[in-house]
């Protein structure tokens, strides 16, 4: 095959056709042996991809080196590309994560208990305003309306309550 490759590089069209025919006969069993039975039908695709790669990269062949080593390197790379394309990557959409990540009810109960202990340190109305706006996601207007106070009064109460909690639980108040 080396002589056919050298002749084809020198412009001999008949040698090039003979080379491609020989390569096809050589590459089919090469790929068939490497493919699993489920992918045996892909051997011809790999042969064609390899012949195309050899055609487009034939000028990179070093005339002083063995041709079969160059041919097998090209075929090997085409085979690796095929395996990578065919590999199955299992993915789970994020919205389907329930079976993977178990919900920890114990952590929720502990967090709720801790929050109750912390909010017990401020007046009841302030505690409720903080809970409604910071935990439950209500707006200041909704929380203020629930307690029959102005939005400004609700903001001041929340601010003072949070400031008191930070002071108390950060070691500022004994």
Automatic annotation (TrEMBL):
The keyword Transcription regulation applies. Keywords: DNA-binding, Sigma factor, Transcription, Transcription regulation. Pfam families: Sigma70_r2, Sigma70_r4_2. One of its GO terms (molecular function) is DNA binding. Gene3D superfamilies: 1.10.1740.10, Winged helix-like DNA-binding domain superfamily/Winged helix DNA-binding domain. InterPro entries: RNA_pol_sigma-70-like, RNA_pol_sigma-70_dom, RNA_pol_sigma70_r2, RNA_pol_sigma70_r4_t2, RNA_pol_sigma_r2, RNA_pol_sigma_r3/r4-like, WH-like_DNA-bd_sf. Residues 114-165 form the RNA polymerase sigma factor 70 region 4 type domain. GO terms for biological process: DNA-templated transcription initiation. Residues 33-87 form the RNA polymerase sigma-70 region domain. It comes from the Bacteria. Signal peptide: none annotated. Belongs to the sigma-70 factor family. ECF subfamily. This is Sigma-70 family RNA polymerase sigma factor. It comes from Devosia litorisediminis. The lineage of its organism: Bacteria, Pseudomonadati, Pseudomonadota, Alphaproteobacteria, Hyphomicrobiales.
């Amino acid at each position: 095959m080396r002589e056919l490759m050298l002749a084809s590089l020198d412009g001999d069209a008949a040698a090039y056709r003979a080379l491609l025919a020989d390569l096809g006969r050589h590459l089919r069993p090469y790929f068939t042996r490497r493919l699993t039975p489920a992918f045996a039908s892909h051997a011809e695709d790999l042969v064609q991809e390899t012949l195309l790669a050899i055609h487009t990269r034939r000028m990179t062949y070093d005339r002083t080196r063995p041709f079969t080593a160059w041919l097998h390197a090209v075929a090997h790379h085409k085979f690796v590309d095929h395996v990578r394309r065919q590999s199955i990557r299992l993915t789970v959409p994020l919205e389907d994560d329930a079976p993977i990540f178990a919900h920890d009810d114990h952590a929720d109960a502990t967090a709720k208990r801790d929050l109750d202990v912390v909010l017990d340190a401020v007046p009841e109305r302030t505690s409720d305003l903080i809970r409604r706006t910071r935990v439950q996601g209500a707006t200041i207007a909704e929380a203020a309306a629930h307690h029959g106070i102005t939005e400004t009064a609700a903001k001041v109460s929340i601010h003072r309550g949070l400031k008191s909690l930070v002071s108390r639980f950060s070691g500022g108040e004994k």
